[in-house]
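User: Can you predict the 3D structure for this chain?
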Amino acid sequence: EEAKQNSLEIKQTEENLNSLKSKLNSQYGKLSPKISVEGGPQSTKYDDEKSNATALYGKAEWNLYNGGSDKAVMDLSKSEIEIQEKRLKYLKNKVKREVSKIYYELQFILESISLKQKALELNSQQMKIAKAKNSSGFTTSSDVLEFDLRDSTLQSDLVLLNQQLDQKSRDLDVLLSRKNQTAPEIVKGHLVR
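Assistant: Here is the predicted structure, written as structure tokens:
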């Protein structure tokens, strides 16, 4: 909802739609009767007689048929309104899809970070065991190197995931038209199979 409210494209389309509806309402005015009253002083002169009076005139007009041009203009306006309503619906669905996509990407990244951190903890425990076995002579130093390499790989994966988290949080802020967000977006939930 926040994205729909803050989207400039949606706001512009809503304003265009309201403008078109107002235009259509004004076009209906051309079909209604027009009544006017005019008046003012009147002086007449017949032969030698001169008379002064006040005159009042009434006028009524009604557009019965104008070659169909008024109806064509109104039909065009109705079509424009339908197009804008469909565009508005499309834009709202598009924003909803984009927000959902980024939300689930953020959720996936957060879940991945959690799994990588757990893997780092397990790797650290296994490295301690491998070092103890190596110092006792039960294994070679290649086992310790393997866990050290795995630790480096997991650390670099975490750095990459944190960068992705920051980028996706910024993408979400842009989509929601938020400004100067310093903290990454908090996304709650769990991915389920």
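The mean pLDDT is 83. Residues 69-136 form the longest helix (68 residues).
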